[in-house]
Amino acid sequence: MDYExxxxxxxxxxxxxxxxxxxxxxxxxxxQRTPRGFLVRDDQAHPIGxxxxxxxxxxxxxxxx
Length: 65
Prior knowledge:
It is built from 1 helix and 5 strands; from the N terminus they run E-E-E-E-E-H. By secondary structure, it is of the alpha+beta class.
């Protein structure tokens, strides 16, 4: 699936990205680079998982958003 059509990813600081729904521009969550991979947080800032790649992180965010 092409997540670029569903989400826009915007830099929000060093090693941190805000993820927004492409159509509505509502906050979907955030991705943070960590030593173990990419930590995904939902729109309420609750951690929902850590992943090896941004693609896997967006996949998970898509499942919960």
